[in-house]
């Protein structure tokens, strides 16, 4: 069985290394290798990883925090182009209650206080389903913290994170940006430049992320097999 963790990709070496570290942590828990692939910016691509391993079934976990183009269109296209006939693609990492717990841990680590204004900062999307996923995560985080969390975006969508920070300044409280990003990169840099009092680190190699990815792989392995081809879980 081939295990593949698929991420977006970044030109930042630190971000690429982080995905590799995350895959290593997952592999240590599963007791088997986990290969890494990227859909943009850097390689190897899912086509390359799957195409080199067509002799055994494969499970692919999209390391994305919401649905969107890469999950719904890009990854399935890579699977088809690879020529691999036995691939199970799990659902994205988010939304999931586990991610809300990881976000709270990152907030506590950053020095967040209960009276702070909090912004959940995502990369952004124009996909309606992915946008619903992000609002679901913001709602879960709001419920966990006991106060309203605003949703803002580093790239696609409104409000932009810097604008949301400026709007919350008028409340007279500190503004904390909770990074809803998996790794370092351009978007995390934008969060740090947003003018917030505190910006949490990306979710990264938090143990909760490792457990979530392990769960995705394990559920795919115990699910009833489909006939052949690309399968979703």
Task: Report on the architecture of this protein.
This protein has 233 residues and is of the alpha/beta class. The chain folds into two domains: 2-94 and 206-232, Rossmann fold; 97-199, Rossmann fold (3-Layer(aba) Sandwich), CATH 3.40.50. The chain has eight helices and nine strands. The protein has helices at residues 13-30, 46-51, 69-82, 97-110, 128-145, 161-169, 186-192, 207-222, and strands spanning 2-7, 35-38, 58-62, 86-89, 117-124, 149-156, 175-179, 198-199, 229-232. A five-stranded parallel beta sheet has the order 2-1-3-4-9, sandwiched between helices. The two termini are 16 Å apart. Residues 224-229 have low confidence and may be disordered.
Number-wise, the strands total 9
Helix coverage percent: 40-55%
Mean pLDDT across all residues, rounded? 91
Question: How many domains is the backbone divided into?
Answer: 2
CATH architecture of the largest domain: 3-Layer(aba) Sandwich
Pfam families: CbiX (PF01903)
EC number: 4.99.1.3
Protein name: Sirohydrochlorin cobaltochelatase
GO molecular function, one term: metal ion binding
């Amino acid at each position: 069985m081939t295990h593949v963790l698929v991420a977006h990709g970044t030109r930042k070496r630190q971000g690429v290394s982080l995905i590799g570290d995350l895959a290593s942590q997952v592999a240590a828990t599963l007791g088997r290798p986990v290969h890494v692939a990227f859909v943009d910016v850097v390689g190897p691509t899912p086509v390359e990883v799957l195409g080199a391993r067509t002799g055994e079934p494969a499970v692919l976990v999209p390391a994305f925090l919401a649905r969107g183009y890469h999950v719904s269109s890009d990854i399935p296209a890579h699977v088809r182009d690879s020529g691999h006939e036995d691939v199970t693609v799990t659902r994205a990492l988010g939304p999931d209650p586990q991610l809300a717990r990881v976000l709270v841990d990152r907030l506590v680590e950053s020095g967040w206080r209960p009276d702070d204004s909090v912004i959940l900062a995502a990369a952004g999307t124009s996909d309606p389903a992915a946008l619903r996923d992000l609002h679901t995560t913001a709602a879960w985080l709001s419920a966990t913290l006991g106060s309203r969390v605003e949703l803002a975006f580093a790239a696609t969508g409104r409000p932009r994170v810097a604008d949301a920070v400026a709007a919350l300044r008028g409340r007279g409280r500190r503004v904390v940006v909770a990074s809803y990003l998996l790794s370092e990169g351009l978007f995390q840099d934008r969060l740090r430049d947003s003018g917030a009092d505190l910006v949490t680190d990306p979710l990264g190699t938090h143990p909760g992320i490792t457990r979530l990815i392990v769960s995705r792989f394990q559920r795919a392995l115990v699910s009833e097999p489909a006939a052949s081809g690309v399968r979703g879980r």
